[in-house]
Write a structure and sequence with these properties.
The protein is α/β, with parallel strands linked by helices. The chain is built from nine helices and six strands.
């Protein structure tokens, strides 16, 4: 069991696009159990899978207020994956949560958008809307209250991200840090080989969905890969497979939980 590293403030995990917070099929794999073993109680964002940044940020604001009321704490620490980082930033900067958040750690968040998405959205608009509508119907059945996939597609554009960043300035009282990841080759993840190739063409190094340059925000901790020839994919970042990448040791990460342990320890030693 890990040593105890109980944070000063509660820990809120905010998921990315396409998934919901579920008890039996946890978005974060073994990571919540790791944090609990290190002495922390875990809370979840519970926002929609495919909600817009604005709508999901409202849900996160509500969760922060619930957590603070339940625990008596003055602030929370947020660890957010992918789009969840944008939802959290909007809640902090545009919804007045800056004085209630001690730190925001983003993992592979597309802070600067995607040139690949910009290119894909040149497709006929009726096709994009049709894909968005079908996706909304699916996630509505799975529990989303107000999915807006078509709008989210456009929020991922590089041009939209630039506008978003101009409006949502960092709050002076919040510590921002970010982590990047990349696949070393298309075969690093059988689920993301095609998207990796597409994103590689327009955005360069990527984790199968997000370009590494887009992941940089606040104190950027660098780009991480797996041991040996294996990279780290967008799925790997939240422990989708629930197991180590490799038993080998060397340059790179052999188990994603090692990195999350380091993230929590850093927050602990920073007094958060």
């Amino acid at each position: 069991m890990e040593d105890k590293y109980k944070l000063k403030y509660p820990l809120l995990l905010v998921h990315g696009m396409g998934f919901r917070d579920r008890r039996r099929l946890n978005y974060w794999g073994r990571i919540p159990k790791l944090f609990e073993e290190m002495g922390n109680e875990i809370y979840y964002g519970n926002q929609d899978s495919n909600g817009s940044i604005e709508d999901n940020a409202l849900a996160i604001k509500g969760r922060i207020e619930e957590i603070l009321k339940a625990t008596g704490a003055k602030k929370v620490n947020i660890i957010a994956h992918s789009k969840g980082g944008l939802d959290a930033r909007y809640a902090i900067s545009s919804l007045g949560m800056g004085d209630r958040v001690a730190s925001l750690t983003t993992v592979a968040t597309p802070h600067h958008g995607s040139i690949t998405v910009e290119k894909l959205l040149r497709a006929p608009d009726f096709l994009v809307k049709a894909v968005g509508f079908c996706t909304d119907c699916w996630f509505g059945l799975l529990g989303d209250k107000n999915p807006k996939t078509y709008r989210v597609f456009h929020q991922f554009k590089a041009s939209s991200a630039k506008e978003f960043n101009e409006i949502n300035r960092d709050h002076s009282d919040v510590y921002y840090q970010s982590y990047g990841f990349k696949m070393k080759r298309a075969t690093s993840d059988m689920f993301m080989w095609l998207t990796y190739i597409a994103v590689k063409k327009f955005d360069g190094d990527n984790d199968g969905l997000v370009g590494t340059e887009s992941m940089m925000w606040g104190s950027f901790k660098g780009v991480y890969t797996g041991v040996g020839n294996r990279g780290i994919s967008h799925c790997d970042e939240v422990d989708m497979r629930r197991r180590r990448f490799s038993t080998k040791k060397g340059e790179g990460i052999s188990d994603i939980t090692e990195l999350y342990s380091d993230i929590l320890k850093e927050l602990y030693f920073r007094g958060f």
